[in-house]
Amino acid sequence: MGGANESSVSEFLLLWLSRQPEEQQLLFVLFLSMYLATVLGNLLIILAISTDSRLHTPMYFFLSNLSFVDLCFSSNTVPKMLVNHILGIQTISFPGCLTQLYFFVVFTDMDNFLLAVMAYDRFVAVCHPLHYTTKMTHQLCVLLVAGSWSIANLNGLLHTLLMARLSFCADNRIPHFFCDLSPLLKLSCSDTHLNEMMVLIEGGLIMMIPLFCILVSYICITSAVLRVPSTKGKWKAFSTCGSHLAVVSLFYGTIIAVYFSPSSSHSAKTDTAATVMYTVVTPMLNPFIYSLRNKDMKGALRKMIGRKRGSTS
Predict the structure, then answer these.
(1) Alpha-carbon span 212 to 220, nearest angstrom
(2) What is the maximum alpha-carbon separation in the chain?
(3) Which residues contact 307 (CB under 8 A, 6 or more apart)?
(4) Of 137, 163, 234, 239, whose CB has the highest number of CB atoms within 10 Å?
(5) Rounded CA gap, 13 and 310, in Å?
(6) Could you tell me where the DSSP H helices lie in 178-267?
(7) Other CB atoms within 10 A of residue 70 CB
């Protein structure tokens, strides 16, 4: 029972997060608010960086890419869920489900890679400040981002093709708000051993190697900051690093809990709650933690808003 042509399921039912009408209304308002905040925050960052020449540096180049990815990350899942709620339907077609899965894997990987690249950028800036401009060249920055997109797309294609070969027979109800790997594998009536092995081995490497790079970078940054004589300088550096590490912990902690912990410890509710954290909450928080707390970014935003006000008056 292994081929996609044996599949008798043409569509899936997304069961949302609750079956209680009152809770559904509350969740709809909550998710709509978080999505609008995600779109507004990330678009403001992209516009501010693109319009202010002072922010055309490696750090802000990576930040603008992260904002674009976070915007796409949320847009891949949340609008479909909101539209289904408004229309009173729960269905998503089989091709639509595979498409959503593909982009979900791609944007998850891109978030993962960009967090690592940004940590490396901060490592070079703090630990090798005199060589920063020669090491973090524009060509290297473009190469790092392009390489990340290439690997992410190949990984997304791999998991989508592996999912397409599976059969889905009677049960087509996904206890989730989008087409995710884990619930789809549980629904399949085929042998999913290869899919699960690829998630653990290949997916594990794609997640753990960047996480290792992030941890090493911040260990080196911490070591360098501790040698700074100024207490104010130390506090500023630790404050920035602490915020970044909070996002990293939230992002990786929830992913490891969902995909790399024993399946016996999983439940649909806990998996869904954990997934919400890194697919909806983290993209919403990233603009505030990485950028809007930044003095240069605040100045660029004020300048951009002031320019628009001046043009409309």
Answers:
(1) 12
(2) 68
(3) 51
(4) 163
(5) 50
(6) 181-187, 193-226, 231-259
(7) 27
CB atoms inside a 10 Å sphere around CB 173: 12
The gap from C-alpha 8 to its chain's centroid, in whole angstroms, comes to 32
Helix axes 94-127, 193-226, angle to 10 degrees: 20
Among the listed residues 108, 122, 72, the one whose alpha carbon sits nearest the alpha carbon of residue 290: 122
**Sole residue written with tokens 């869920």:** 81
pTM: 0.86
Q: CB within 8 A of 36, min separation 6: which ones?
A: none
Cα separation, 99 vs 114, whole angstroms: 22
Q: Tell me which residue has tokens 């660029």.
A: 300
Residue corresponding to tokens 């901060």: 122
Q: pLDDT tens across 295-308, in order?
A: 777 777 777 777 66
Please write the tens of the pLDDT for every residue from 48-103.
888 888 888 998 899 899 999 999 999 999 999 899 888 888 889 999 999 999 99
Are the CB atoms for 66 and 290 separated by under 8 Å? yes
Strands 91-93 and 173-174: unpaired
What DSSP element (H or E) covers 91? strand 91-93
Structure tokens that stand for 212 in this block: 């290792």
Radius of gyration of the chain (CA): 21
Task: Reduce the DSSP state of residue 12 to 3 states and report it.
Answer: strand
Cα end-to-end span (Å), the chain: 67
On whether the CB atoms of residues 271 and 255 are closer than 8 A, the answer is no
- Count, residues in the chain: 313
Contact yes or no for 85/16 (Cβ under 8 A): yes
Task: Report whether 200 contacts 177 (CB < 8 A).
Answer: no
Contact present, 124 and 221 (Cβ < 8 Å): no
